[in-house]
Specification:
328 residues; alpha+beta; 7 helices
Length: 328
């Protein structure tokens, strides 16, 4: 692109004088203005001319001022989305920014609404993200409830969910605003308005087990797990056993005992098939020194009881710890 003004002088084989040099510089300074430049929009075609500054992922360098303008025009068209760079866009950047911000809020709301209150997930952090609470057994309620996990109107959905799906027993006994256990009212809405507190599930140190009767039929794998919120199990077990054996009759061959005699101070005692005899000078009364004989071929009765002792045994499977969170 050349200038629209002419030189003051074209030199030949002559001495350059200060006057000539100053005159040429004055000419440039006085005329090198937008009005003194070639017009890059001399006609409609020139005005619409653009050039991609980054075609095929490679920079395209301008070699003239016109080339620079064409590359800027190309980017303006890309930004506005209009057919020509000089056409007013349907909206300005400020309006676009506002729209994008609103869309972000809408998307967040859609995602939040898509995950209903009461859904819970494992989570690799010690605190819950926005919109979620730790399942640590603390309580929720309205702003005046004194809920220890969340006391806010936005806890209503989770409060209602837990109220509806649990009974007022065990770890889900509802509390008044002071934290004292109490009875449930006519509805979750009534209790929420009465500033009551609903306990959250307490997943601290616990695994999650599916209901054994889920779907209406029992799987008989964890027979006690038949109601939401059922808790059971332990980290260790005390192993204790006792051996008890009743009377056992041994034959002569099993016992290996020879014939023998027992002396007992009783006048009417018999051993096996042996007979009791009175002691010397006795009339058969107590303490008469009776003796009884048991032959080797006669049976013997023996009973035994033994305590095998006890020990504490770990019964927990290998685990990795994290947090459980619930949507409110």
């Amino acid at each position: 692109m050349g200038a629209t003004f002419a030189r003051v002088k074209t030199w030949g084989n002559e001495v350059l004088t200060a006057a000539d040099l100053n005159a040429e510089f004055d000419n440039i300074l006085n005329n090198l203005t937008p009005a003194g430049m070639d017009d890059a929009s001399a006609n409609l075609a020139a005005m619409q001319a653009t050039a991609d500054p980054y075609p095929a992922g490679s920079a395209s360098l301008a070699t003239s001022l016109a080339g620079e303008l064409q590359r800027l025009r190309f980017l303006i068209k890309q930004i506005t989305g209009e057919a020509q760079w000089y056409i007013d866009p349907d909206t300005d950047l400020a309006t676009v920014a506002t729209a994008v911000s609103g869309l972000t809020t809408t998307i967040t709301g859609v995602v939040t609404g898509y995950v209903p209150a009461g859904v819970h997930f494992p989570y690799w952090a010690s605190s819950a993200p926005t919109g979620w609470l730790l399942e640590d057994g603390r309580t929720i309620g309205d702003g005046s409830s004194g809920g220890t996990s969340r006391a806010n109107a936005d806890a209503s959905a989770l409060f209602t969910f837990l109220w509806t799906n649990t009974t007022n027993t065990g770890e889900f006994v509802i509390q008044d605003s002071s934290g004292a256990p109490t009875t449930r009212g006519a509805s979750a809405a009534d209790d929420f308005a009465a500033h009551k507190r609903m306990p959250l599930p307490d997943m601290r140190g616990r695994t999650f087990v599916g209901l054994d009767n889920m779907g209406g039929s029992a799987a008989s794998r964890v027979a006690a797990a038949t109601a939401i919120g059922t808790v059971a199990g332990a980290e260790t077990a005390d192993l204790h056993h006792t051996h008890t054996t009743g009377d056992v009759t041994l034959t002569a061959a099993q016992s290996g005992l020879p014939s023998h005699t027992h002396i007992i101070n009783d006048s009417s005692v018999a051993f096996g098939s042996g007979s009791a005899v009175q002691g010397p000078g006795s009339t058969g009364g107590a303490n008469s020194g009776a003796t009884g004989g048991t032959a080797a071929s006669e049976a013997h009765n023996h009973g035994a009881t033994g305590d095998g002792g006890s020990t504490t045994q770990a019964i927990m499977d290998p685990y990795i710890a994290g947090a459980w969170i619930i949507k409110y």
